[in-house]
User: What shape does this take?
Amino acid sequence: MMHKYSVTIVFLLSLLCCGLILPIHSALTQSSTISSQGIVTYDDPDNVPFGFILKYSTGFENVVKTSSTHLNMSINNYLDTTGTGSGMWIEGLDRTTPGFAPHSGSRCLGLEVNSTVTETHRSQLDVYIASLITTDQYYVKAYYFLPPDWQMDTSDAAVVAGTYYSIADPFQCFPNFEPQVAIECHPGRIDNHWNGNFDLAVTWRGHLPGQPGTWFPNWAVIPNYPWMELRGRWFPIEWWVKMDSSLTSTPNNDGAMKVWVDGVLVCDKSGVPLLRQSGEYITVGKIYYGSMDLIPKKLWFDDLEIWGQP
Assistant: This one.
């Protein structure tokens, strides 16, 4: 007599063959309706919400610059720079950095800001996702590489001035750039001196009806975050966003956001005014830091994935 467990296994296998049970990774299989360019590792979905589908991906293998401010990513994008010395290149095409390898394939994107910049320091790639996201939620993941010698100005003057470094913006709106959510590195501070450590902060910027000026609350602050341990290797940054349900300038305060850095949840915020205005976009990779800090900086990023609800 066949053992009852063997019967069960045979039955399940027959259902699988008939297509009644989907393979575990079937949701990650790229379909012909998904815009994609280059190599992206679909076997590493990590924190993708249940039921989300892949809307767009690129490993930058087939991407070229069509102008000084645009890439042929098959999704609306814009390179935003400020000051002499800011720029972007396609690693493996426009430039090959000795001793450096992209996260996958042979290409990725590089950003740089040199010490010749005298204004607010900025080099970032903005990707407009409104055409992809037809509901109020999305999830984004990309891989980042900070050079082994990456550093910040930690002099007393810079620390007192509130020097910081932004690496990505999970949410932003055009044309007024608010609200904005940024992932930032800050030197830790004791009185007016650097404490020898760095903090990770997720900050919100915006203004609400009846409020004077612009509001800059910290949604999350992790003291003594090991930013220096991330240097010289690829690490992922992920975020999930639920936009405010209000379609006016008055929020319902029912937005939410989660942010993971190097696989660790660093921000889990709900009941917030992530008001959509027009042209919602994300800043995938970003070098943005305070004017006190004149240390040249580089950043690479690769394997961008944008997921959304069907």
Notes: The radius of gyration is 21 Å. The chain has one domain: 31-308. Confidence is low (pLDDT under 50) at residues 1-33.
